[in-house]
Specification:
Oligomer: single chain
Number of helices: 12
Strand order of the largest sheet: 3-4-2-1-5-12-11-6-7-10-8-9
Shape: globular
CATH topology of the largest domain: Isopropylmalate Dehydrogenase
CATH architecture of the largest domain: 3-Layer(aba) Sandwich
Helix content: 25-40%
Number of strands: 12
Protein backbone atom coordinates (compact mmCIF):
# COMPACT_ATOMS: atom_id res chain seq x y z
CA UNK A 1 0.00 0.00 0.00
CA UNK A 2 1.33 3.41 -0.91
CA UNK A 3 2.06 5.62 2.10
CA UNK A 4 0.18 8.88 2.48
CA UNK A 5 2.24 12.02 2.20
CA UNK A 6 2.54 14.04 5.38
CA UNK A 7 0.20 16.97 5.78
CA UNK A 8 1.21 20.36 4.43
CA UNK A 9 0.50 21.88 7.83
CA UNK A 10 3.37 23.20 9.88
CA UNK A 11 4.04 20.55 12.51
CA UNK A 12 5.49 21.14 15.96
CA UNK A 13 6.89 18.43 18.20
CA UNK A 14 6.40 19.16 21.90
CA UNK A 15 8.43 17.06 24.34
CA UNK A 16 6.61 16.56 27.64
CA UNK A 17 9.53 17.21 29.97
CA UNK A 18 9.79 15.73 33.45
CA UNK A 19 6.44 14.05 34.23
CA UNK A 20 6.84 14.86 37.92
CA UNK A 21 6.71 18.57 37.06
CA UNK A 22 4.23 20.93 35.42
CA UNK A 23 5.13 20.13 31.78
CA UNK A 24 2.05 18.05 31.00
CA UNK A 25 -0.24 20.58 32.66
CA UNK A 26 1.07 23.63 30.80
CA UNK A 27 1.07 21.77 27.48
CA UNK A 28 -2.59 20.79 27.84
CA UNK A 29 -3.60 24.28 28.97
CA UNK A 30 -1.60 25.98 26.22
CA UNK A 31 -2.93 23.81 23.38
CA UNK A 32 -6.49 24.20 24.63
CA UNK A 33 -6.13 27.99 24.53
CA UNK A 34 -4.48 27.87 21.10
CA UNK A 35 -7.02 25.40 19.67
CA UNK A 36 -9.02 27.95 17.67
CA UNK A 37 -5.89 29.66 16.36
CA UNK A 38 -4.11 26.61 14.96
CA UNK A 39 -5.86 25.68 11.71
CA UNK A 40 -2.56 25.71 9.80
CA UNK A 41 -0.54 23.99 12.55
CA UNK A 42 -0.45 20.41 13.86
CA UNK A 43 0.95 19.49 17.25
CA UNK A 44 2.62 16.20 18.20
CA UNK A 45 3.12 15.91 21.94
CA UNK A 46 5.79 13.33 22.76
CA UNK A 47 4.99 11.66 26.07
CA UNK A 48 2.37 9.42 27.64
CA UNK A 49 -1.15 9.33 26.21
CA UNK A 50 -2.75 7.90 29.37
CA UNK A 51 -0.83 10.23 31.66
CA UNK A 52 -1.95 13.30 29.72
CA UNK A 53 -5.52 12.06 29.50
CA UNK A 54 -5.55 11.59 33.28
CA UNK A 55 -4.26 15.14 33.78
CA UNK A 56 -6.93 16.53 31.45
CA UNK A 57 -9.66 14.68 33.34
CA UNK A 58 -8.27 15.88 36.66
CA UNK A 59 -8.57 19.54 35.70
CA UNK A 60 -11.51 19.32 33.25
CA UNK A 61 -9.41 20.29 30.22
CA UNK A 62 -10.94 19.12 26.91
CA UNK A 63 -8.92 16.19 25.57
CA UNK A 64 -9.14 15.73 21.80
CA UNK A 65 -5.89 14.00 20.89
CA UNK A 66 -5.11 11.12 18.54
CA UNK A 67 -2.85 8.41 19.93
CA UNK A 68 0.22 7.89 17.70
CA UNK A 69 1.96 4.61 18.48
CA UNK A 70 5.35 5.10 16.79
CA UNK A 71 7.60 7.55 14.98
CA UNK A 72 6.85 5.97 11.56
CA UNK A 73 3.09 6.27 12.20
CA UNK A 74 3.58 10.02 12.56
CA UNK A 75 4.44 10.13 8.84
CA UNK A 76 0.89 9.24 7.82
CA UNK A 77 -0.93 11.11 10.55
CA UNK A 78 -2.89 14.10 9.20
CA UNK A 79 -4.66 15.40 12.30
CA UNK A 80 -4.23 18.56 14.34
CA UNK A 81 -3.37 17.27 17.83
CA UNK A 82 -1.68 13.95 18.50
CA UNK A 83 0.31 12.28 21.25
CA UNK A 84 3.24 10.07 20.30
CA UNK A 85 2.76 7.56 23.09
CA UNK A 86 5.85 6.48 25.02
CA UNK A 87 3.92 4.44 27.56
CA UNK A 88 2.05 4.88 30.83
CA UNK A 89 3.51 7.25 33.44
CA UNK A 90 0.67 6.58 35.89
CA UNK A 91 2.95 5.71 38.83
CA UNK A 92 5.11 8.80 38.55
CA UNK A 93 4.79 10.91 41.75
CA UNK A 94 4.44 14.67 41.35
CA UNK A 95 7.15 16.91 42.77
CA UNK A 96 9.78 14.20 43.29
CA UNK A 97 13.22 14.03 41.71
CA UNK A 98 13.84 10.55 40.31
CA UNK A 99 15.97 8.70 37.80
CA UNK A 100 12.79 7.26 36.27
CA UNK A 101 11.40 10.71 35.48
CA UNK A 102 14.79 11.85 34.19
CA UNK A 103 14.95 8.90 31.82
CA UNK A 104 11.39 9.52 30.58
CA UNK A 105 12.20 13.18 29.93
CA UNK A 106 15.34 12.27 27.96
CA UNK A 107 13.40 9.67 25.96
CA UNK A 108 10.82 12.29 24.99
CA UNK A 109 13.57 14.64 23.79
CA UNK A 110 15.31 11.92 21.77
CA UNK A 111 12.05 10.85 20.13
CA UNK A 112 11.16 14.45 19.31
CA UNK A 113 14.51 14.89 17.58
CA UNK A 114 13.80 11.69 15.60
CA UNK A 115 10.58 13.25 14.35
CA UNK A 116 12.47 16.27 13.06
CA UNK A 117 15.36 14.20 11.75
CA UNK A 118 12.87 12.31 9.55
CA UNK A 119 11.16 15.56 8.51
CA UNK A 120 7.91 14.58 10.23
CA UNK A 121 8.04 17.70 12.38
CA UNK A 122 9.35 21.18 11.61
CA UNK A 123 10.30 22.55 15.03
CA UNK A 124 10.62 21.52 18.66
CA UNK A 125 9.10 22.99 21.82
CA UNK A 126 10.45 21.47 25.03
CA UNK A 127 8.67 21.39 28.38
CA UNK A 128 10.97 21.74 31.41
CA UNK A 129 13.29 19.00 32.63
CA UNK A 130 15.03 18.63 35.97
CA UNK A 131 18.83 18.55 35.70
CA UNK A 132 19.34 16.38 38.79
CA UNK A 133 16.76 13.88 37.53
CA UNK A 134 18.40 13.46 34.13
CA UNK A 135 21.80 13.12 35.81
CA UNK A 136 20.44 10.35 38.03
CA UNK A 137 19.19 8.59 34.90
CA UNK A 138 22.73 8.52 33.49
CA UNK A 139 22.46 11.54 31.18
CA UNK A 140 25.28 13.86 32.20
CA UNK A 141 24.61 16.89 30.01
CA UNK A 142 24.05 20.18 31.89
CA UNK A 143 20.63 20.66 30.31
CA UNK A 144 18.44 20.77 27.22
CA UNK A 145 20.74 22.94 25.13
CA UNK A 146 23.82 20.76 25.44
CA UNK A 147 21.77 17.58 25.04
CA UNK A 148 20.19 18.78 21.80
CA UNK A 149 23.54 20.04 20.51
CA UNK A 150 24.98 16.56 21.06
CA UNK A 151 22.09 14.80 19.30
CA UNK A 152 22.40 17.10 16.29
CA UNK A 153 26.23 17.30 16.21
CA UNK A 154 26.02 21.08 16.67
CA UNK A 155 29.37 22.39 17.86
CA UNK A 156 28.44 26.05 18.06
CA UNK A 157 25.29 27.07 19.92
CA UNK A 158 23.89 29.80 22.14
CA UNK A 159 20.87 30.72 24.24
CA UNK A 160 18.66 33.62 23.20
CA UNK A 161 16.00 34.82 25.62
CA UNK A 162 12.99 36.37 23.92
CA UNK A 163 10.37 38.34 25.80
CA UNK A 164 8.70 41.73 25.81
CA UNK A 165 10.87 44.11 23.77
CA UNK A 166 14.02 42.01 24.10
CA UNK A 167 16.05 39.40 22.24
CA UNK A 168 19.01 38.77 24.53
CA UNK A 169 21.83 36.33 23.75
CA UNK A 170 23.92 35.14 26.68
CA UNK A 171 27.70 35.03 26.30
CA UNK A 172 27.77 32.50 29.13
CA UNK A 173 24.95 30.66 30.87
CA UNK A 174 25.34 28.73 34.11
CA UNK A 175 28.83 29.77 35.19
CA UNK A 176 30.01 31.48 38.34
CA UNK A 177 30.66 35.18 37.88
CA UNK A 178 34.41 34.55 38.04
CA UNK A 179 34.15 31.90 35.30
CA UNK A 180 31.83 34.11 33.24
CA UNK A 181 34.41 36.90 33.21
CA UNK A 182 37.06 34.42 32.08
CA UNK A 183 34.67 33.37 29.31
CA UNK A 184 34.78 36.83 27.74
CA UNK A 185 37.24 35.89 25.01
CA UNK A 186 37.40 37.16 21.41
CA UNK A 187 36.73 33.83 19.72
CA UNK A 188 33.73 33.04 21.91
CA UNK A 189 32.28 36.52 21.49
CA UNK A 190 32.58 36.31 17.70
CA UNK A 191 30.97 32.86 17.77
CA UNK A 192 27.93 34.12 19.71
CA UNK A 193 27.60 37.20 17.52
CA UNK A 194 27.76 35.17 14.31
CA UNK A 195 25.07 32.80 15.60
CA UNK A 196 22.91 35.79 16.53
CA UNK A 197 23.29 37.52 13.19
CA UNK A 198 22.60 34.38 11.13
CA UNK A 199 19.54 33.47 13.18
CA UNK A 200 18.04 36.96 13.02
CA UNK A 201 18.43 37.01 9.26
CA UNK A 202 17.25 33.46 8.58
CA UNK A 203 14.41 33.00 11.04
CA UNK A 204 13.32 36.47 12.10
CA UNK A 205 13.68 37.70 8.48
CA UNK A 206 15.66 40.80 9.54
CA UNK A 207 17.80 41.71 6.53
CA UNK A 208 20.47 43.74 8.35
CA UNK A 209 20.11 43.09 12.07
CA UNK A 210 21.21 45.76 14.52
CA UNK A 211 23.10 44.09 17.37
CA UNK A 212 24.28 45.79 20.56
CA UNK A 213 27.07 44.41 22.75
CA UNK A 214 26.84 45.04 26.48
CA UNK A 215 29.94 46.06 28.38
CA UNK A 216 31.26 43.78 31.10
CA UNK A 217 32.19 46.42 33.67
CA UNK A 218 30.22 49.33 35.17
CA UNK A 219 29.74 52.10 32.60
CA UNK A 220 31.48 49.84 30.08
CA UNK A 221 34.67 50.67 32.05
CA UNK A 222 34.69 54.38 31.01
CA UNK A 223 37.65 53.81 28.70
CA UNK A 224 39.59 51.66 31.13
CA UNK A 225 38.81 53.37 34.44
CA UNK A 226 36.93 50.33 35.84
CA UNK A 227 38.45 47.40 33.99
CA UNK A 228 40.35 46.47 30.84
CA UNK A 229 38.06 43.98 29.07
CA UNK A 230 36.23 46.60 27.01
CA UNK A 231 39.39 48.14 25.54
CA UNK A 232 41.38 44.93 25.18
CA UNK A 233 38.68 42.50 24.03
CA UNK A 234 35.25 43.93 23.22
CA UNK A 235 36.14 47.03 21.24
CA UNK A 236 38.60 45.25 18.88
CA UNK A 237 36.04 42.52 18.16
CA UNK A 238 33.29 45.05 17.46
CA UNK A 239 35.53 47.17 15.22
CA UNK A 240 36.62 44.07 13.30
CA UNK A 241 33.01 43.11 12.61
CA UNK A 242 32.04 46.68 11.73
CA UNK A 243 34.74 46.65 9.05
CA UNK A 244 33.04 43.56 7.60
CA UNK A 245 29.83 45.55 7.24
CA UNK A 246 27.99 44.36 10.33
CA UNK A 247 25.44 46.67 11.93
CA UNK A 248 26.90 46.23 15.40
CA UNK A 249 27.72 48.65 18.21
CA UNK A 250 29.16 48.79 21.70
CA UNK A 251 30.34 48.00 24.22
CA UNK A 252 27.42 49.83 25.81
CA UNK A 253 26.93 50.49 29.53
CA UNK A 254 24.36 47.87 30.46
CA UNK A 255 22.51 50.19 32.85
CA UNK A 256 21.31 52.30 29.89
CA UNK A 257 21.49 49.73 27.07
CA UNK A 258 18.32 47.92 28.08
CA UNK A 259 16.36 51.17 28.23
CA UNK A 260 17.19 51.93 24.60
CA UNK A 261 16.61 48.31 23.60
CA UNK A 262 13.16 48.47 25.20
CA UNK A 263 12.40 51.39 22.87
CA UNK A 264 13.22 49.26 19.81
CA UNK A 265 16.68 50.63 19.01
CA UNK A 266 18.24 47.16 18.63
CA UNK A 267 17.22 43.81 17.19
CA UNK A 268 19.29 41.87 19.72
CA UNK A 269 21.71 42.30 22.60
CA UNK A 270 24.72 40.18 23.50
CA UNK A 271 24.90 40.10 27.33
CA UNK A 272 28.20 39.20 28.93
CA UNK A 273 26.80 36.90 31.65
CA UNK A 274 23.60 35.25 32.83
CA UNK A 275 22.10 37.79 35.23
CA UNK A 276 23.06 40.79 33.10
CA UNK A 277 20.68 39.44 30.46
CA UNK A 278 18.01 37.70 32.53
CA UNK A 279 17.20 40.40 35.09
CA UNK A 280 15.84 42.96 32.59
CA UNK A 281 14.00 40.29 30.62
CA UNK A 282 12.29 38.84 33.68
CA UNK A 283 11.42 42.30 34.92
CA UNK A 284 9.43 43.09 31.77
CA UNK A 285 8.42 39.59 30.58
CA UNK A 286 8.37 37.31 33.61
CA UNK A 287 5.32 35.31 32.46
CA UNK A 288 5.96 35.35 28.70
CA UNK A 289 9.71 34.82 28.30
CA UNK A 290 10.94 32.13 25.91
CA UNK A 291 14.25 30.28 25.77
CA UNK A 292 15.39 29.95 22.15
CA UNK A 293 18.42 27.88 21.09
CA UNK A 294 20.66 29.21 18.31
CA UNK A 295 22.93 26.93 16.30
CA UNK A 296 20.74 23.84 15.96
CA UNK A 297 19.58 22.68 12.51
CA UNK A 298 15.98 23.39 13.51
CA UNK A 299 13.98 25.79 15.68
CA UNK A 300 13.81 24.89 19.37
CA UNK A 301 11.97 26.94 21.97
CA UNK A 302 11.09 26.37 25.60
CA UNK A 303 9.13 28.23 28.28
CA UNK A 304 11.32 30.30 30.56
CA UNK A 305 10.59 28.39 33.76
CA UNK A 306 11.47 25.11 35.40
CA UNK A 307 9.59 22.03 36.49
CA UNK A 308 8.00 23.87 39.46
CA UNK A 309 7.88 20.78 41.66
CA UNK A 310 6.38 22.86 44.49
CA UNK A 311 3.09 23.26 42.58
CA UNK A 312 3.19 20.16 40.35
CA UNK A 313 -0.06 18.21 40.29
CA UNK A 314 -2.10 21.05 41.82
CA UNK A 315 -3.49 22.64 38.64
CA UNK A 316 -1.95 26.02 39.52
CA UNK A 317 0.62 26.29 36.72
CA UNK A 318 0.44 29.33 34.41
CA UNK A 319 0.67 28.25 30.75
CA UNK A 320 1.47 31.68 29.31
CA UNK A 321 5.20 31.05 28.83
CA UNK A 322 4.43 27.74 27.09
CA UNK A 323 1.93 29.54 24.84
CA UNK A 324 4.63 32.08 23.97
CA UNK A 325 7.13 29.30 23.26
CA UNK A 326 4.68 27.53 20.92
CA UNK A 327 3.75 30.74 19.12
CA UNK A 328 7.39 31.74 18.66
CA UNK A 329 8.26 28.29 17.28
CA UNK A 330 5.37 28.54 14.83
CA UNK A 331 6.48 31.99 13.69
CA UNK A 332 10.14 31.06 13.24
CA UNK A 333 9.56 27.68 11.58
CA UNK A 334 7.01 29.26 9.30
CA UNK A 335 9.59 31.86 8.24
CA UNK A 336 12.11 29.22 7.26
CA UNK A 337 10.58 25.80 6.70
CA UNK A 338 13.37 23.58 5.45
CA UNK A 339 14.82 20.07 5.38
CA UNK A 340 17.09 19.11 8.25
CA UNK A 341 20.62 18.22 7.01
CA UNK A 342 21.79 15.83 9.74
Amino acid sequence: MKKKQRTSKLRLAISMGDPAGIGGEVILKALHRLDKKSESVAYIVVGSFEYLRALAQRWAIPFCYHRISSVPEAQTWTGSKGILDLGDYARVPFGKISATCGALAVQAIQTSVDLIRNQWADALVTAPINKEAIHRSGCHFPGHTELLASYTHSKSFAMMMVGGPFRIVLQSIHLSLTEAIQNVRPQLIIEKLELTRVFLKKYFAIHRPKIAVAGLNPHASENGAFGSEENKILKPVIQRLQKKGWNISGPHPSDTLYYWASKGHYDAILAMYHDQGLIPLKLLAFDTGVNLTLGLPFVRTSPDHGTAFDIAGQGKADAQSMISAIQLAQFLAGNQKRAVPF
